[in-house]
């Protein structure tokens, strides 16, 4: 790992959950609650849901894509449904909405604090004048940023709702990151992407960004590197020279 010379870059694009805030852990628990309940009620006991499934099929993807990919891994096909489906609907969208209910309840109960090291880096980027944006697959991103006290740091937030409204393909496609760069008015080649998910790292790599930094919060450095990360850190403060 080496320090980043921020004079070489105009902007930084941050995934939210697992990069700026520990809400990836809340998402992981919500997905676990959803799929353990769903698979158990269906009698799918031969292959129980585990945290490995989260990293392999769900992490970093738009909510309904995660549902669809996890079900496909079990050979299960459900009707797609509609985003307006109630949370008890046995559809892809219904399950995704049910997961969001689990997440919202956990967030309300426990709140969220940003990673201290991520705040250190944000403070440093503000000092050197680097533009910043959040690019998240989650439709909960604005609420999480507000709860974490980070909302006023980002004028540009490309979240799951923005992506759906604009018809952008989700990670691992690069579209959302490219949209973040476009909204900041910067060239991807002079922009850094920060991601903790394999799908997000792959998106940054596919977008031709100048530097893709994987943040290892549990997926493992090898998987992040294999997906296209140029560097891997465990804490964003590692990238700030405090001398």
Q: Could you give a quick summary of the protein structure above?
A:
Belongs to the HAD-like hydrolase superfamily. CbbY/CbbZ/Gph/YieH family. The chain has 243 residues and is an alpha/beta fold. Strands 3-2-1-4-5-6 form a 6-stranded parallel β-sheet, with helices on both faces.
Number of helices: 10
Radius of gyration: 18 Å
Characterize the main sheet.
6 strands, parallel
* Poorly predicted segments: none
CATH class of the largest domain: Alpha Beta
End-to-end separation in angstroms reads 17 Å
Q: Output the structural class.
A: alpha/beta
Roughly how much helix do the residues carry, as a percent range?
Answer: 40-55%
Order of helices and strands: EHHHHHEHEHHEHEHE
The CATH superfamily of the largest domain bears the name HAD superfamily/HAD-like
The total strand number stands at: 6
Task: Count the domains.
Answer: 2
Residue fraction in strands: 5-15%
Question: How much is the average pLDDT?
Answer: 93
Q: How would you sum up this structure, described in words?
A:
With 243 residues, the protein is of the alpha/beta class. The chain contains ten helices and six strands, in the order βαααααβαβααβαβαβ. The chain has helices at residues 23-42, 51-58, 63-73, 92-110, 116-128, 141-147, 160-166, 175-184, 198-206, 221-227; strands at 11-14, 131-135, 156-158, 191-195, 211-215, 231-233. Strands 3-2-1-4-5-6 form a six-stranded parallel β-sheet, sandwiched between helices. Helix 1 crosses helix 4 (92-110), helix 2 (51-58) packs across helix 3 and helix 9 runs parallel beside helix 10. It is globular. The two termini are 17 Å apart. Its EC number is 5.4.2.6. GO terms for molecular function: hydrolase activity. InterPro entries: B-phosphoglucomutase_hydrolase, Beta-PGM-like, HAD-like_sf, HAD-SF_hydro_IA, HAD_sf, PGP-like_dom2. Its cofactor is Mg(2+).
């Amino acid at each position: 790992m080496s320090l980043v010379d921020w004079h070489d870059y105009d902007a930084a694009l941050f995934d939210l959950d697992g990069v700026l805030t520990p809400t990836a852990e809340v998402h992981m628990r919500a997905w676990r609650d959803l799929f353990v309940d769903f698979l158990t009620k269906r009698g799918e006991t031969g292959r129980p849901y585990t945290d490995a499934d989260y990293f392999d099929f769900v992490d970093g993807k738009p909510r309904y894509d995660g549902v669809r990919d996890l079900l496909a891994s079990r050979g299960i096909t459900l009707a797609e449904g509609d985003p307006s489906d109630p949370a008890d609907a046995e559809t892809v969208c219904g399950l995704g909405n049910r997961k969001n209910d689990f997440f919202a309840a956990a967030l309300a109960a426990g709140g969220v604090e940003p990673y201290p090291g991520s705040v250190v880096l944000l403070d440093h980027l503000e000092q050197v004048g680097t533009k910043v944006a959040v690019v998240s697959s989650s439709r909960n991103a604005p609420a999480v940023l507000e709860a974490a006290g980070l909302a006023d740091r980002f004028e540009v937030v490309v979240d799951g709702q923005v992506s759906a409204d604009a018809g952008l393909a989700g990670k691992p496609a690069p579209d959302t990151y490219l949209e973040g760069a476009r909204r900041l008015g910067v060239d991807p080649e002079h922009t850094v992407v920060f991601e903790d998910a394999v799908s997000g790292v792959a998106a940054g790599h596919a977008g031709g960004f100048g530097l893709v930094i994987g943040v290892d919060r549990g997926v493992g450095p090898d998987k992040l590197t294999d997906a296209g990360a140029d560097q891997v850190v465990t804490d964003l403060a590692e990238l700030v020279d405090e001398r």
